[in-house]
Amino acid sequence: MKLSQYLSGAALAAIIAVPGITPVAAAEMTLKFGHVGAPGSLYEETVNAYAECANSALGDKAEVQVFGSSQLGKDKELLQKLKLGQVDFSLPSSIMSSVDDVFGIFEMPYIIKDRDHMRRVQGAMMDKFQEAANKNGYRIVGLVENGFRHITNNVRPVNKPEDLKGIKLRTPNGAWRVKMFKEYGANPTPMAFADVFTALQTGVIDGQENPYAQIASAKFQEVQKYLSITGHVYTPAYILASEKSFAKLPEDVQATLTDCGSKAQDFAYKRAAELETELLQVIKDAGVEVNDADKDAFIEASKPIYEAFGSEVEGGQDMIDEVLGLGKSS
């Protein structure tokens, strides 16, 4: 049921009148939340925490129903379905850089130092991110996280950028991530997350890059030999709605959903920090060889990406300077 659709009194009366059926309290509207996270992922835990918060506060006004593992579509499809009113929320991450160049700031390697830095960036620049979302027909209801990304592959350990030469590496559908890995010497291949395990298993690609929570929940450790701890990009995740549909909700419902978005961020940051320790061990226990990459070498090799973003994106250099400045007190 879409955001604005309500069960009429007649419909409720018809349900109650059916012999032998005990009436169950139904929410006035159902809100579908689709995401690509697998069972056990940070995505799943975060979305479930958001739904629990919202449903507890909304009572019979509305119910957030969760559909994970790409049941309602992959990220690109979910973005389209939001606008069509077929889905009410999704949880995109890197793909937002293809929605608007403003979100490409988070594709700059090593620009976000830690979660405290990210909170300061959010506090100072959220209006800019929301404006970019609104301009494209979306509303950011909450800002959570995907996490710090690392590289796995079946060819060799990656210590420096040159070790990526010739490796077929899956990336999300975002132009700046592709440019970054081309600069490093890899052969980047954009691909939907749901397709990655099979592509790794069959050798269509050699490797991929994701946070530990996505790696472990998708069981990439079962089809990868090497994990290189690069931490090359921190990707936020966005609790996203259609601007048009969200604006039609009653104001008190909007307020509750937004408040739960803030609470979901607190949950995600705490849980992500815990998973970074827990899941690295899970990956090691699966027999994956782990190495700490030379981050200074990657930072040096990333300079052309910063230069390109600064020159090609309107206001890009100012954004880079602002984000870097907000990181100086970390």
UniProtKB/TrEMBL annotation:
One of its GO terms (cellular component) is outer membrane-bounded periplasmic space. Pfam families: DctP. One of its GO terms (biological process) is transmembrane transport. Keywords: Periplasm, Signal, Transport. It comes from the Bacteria. Gene3D superfamilies: Bacterial extracellular solute-binding protein, family 7 (3.40.190.170). Belongs to the bacterial solute-binding protein 7 family. This is C4-dicarboxylate ABC transporter. It comes from Brevirhabdus pacifica.
